[in-house]
Amino acid sequence: MDNKRKINAQAMGHNGPIAFEVSVDNNQVTDLEIKRHSETSGIFDQVADKLRKDVLENQSFEIDAISGATVMSEAILESADQALKKEGVQLPDKAKAQERYEEELQADVVVIGGGEAGLVAAAKLLTAGKKVVLLEKNGYLGGATI
Q1: Radius of gyration (C-alpha) of the chain in whole angstroms
Q2: Model confidence pLDDT, tens digit, residues 83-112
């Protein structure tokens, strides 16, 4: 018996609705495809790719939201979970713990944010001989300047 299905869902993103489709086969998520959105493309594409990868790898919507896009990624995860439940799809209860670690760093100055201003500030401090830690929530530097 073929249990392949495509389930349409919608979530409210930061800039408006996000339409997406969840493909399932025998109670397994096989794809999460964004159909339409009005989010900032450069940032959204990275978030959507990571979210898709995490859902497929964990076979669950009970995963961490993507830092820097928390509202949007939580909305997609919640909407997808509700849409599958409404269609009677029951994913295996096997959400795995995501890896976490702690690291202690010593610095003279901590710069929070790797956007243009944070990068300039960190560079000036380094030039002044300070030991600097630069923290950025996204997987890339440049912030909104990208």
Answers
A1: 19
A2: 999 998 888 776 555 577 888 999 999 999
Residue 24's nearest CA partner among 50, 60, 48, 54 is 60
Contacting residues for 53 by C-beta, under 8 A, at least 6 apart? none
Binning pLDDT at 50, 70 and 90, where does residue 134 land?
very high
Q: How far is C-alpha 44 from the chain's CA centre?
A: 9
DSSP 55-111: HHHHTSS-SPPPTT-HHHHHHHHHHHHHHHHHTT----S-PPPPP--------SEEE
Query: Is-contact 5 23, C-beta < 8 A?
Result: yes
The span from the CA of 43 to the CA of 33, in Å, is: 16
Rounded Cα distance, 129 and 2, in Å: 65
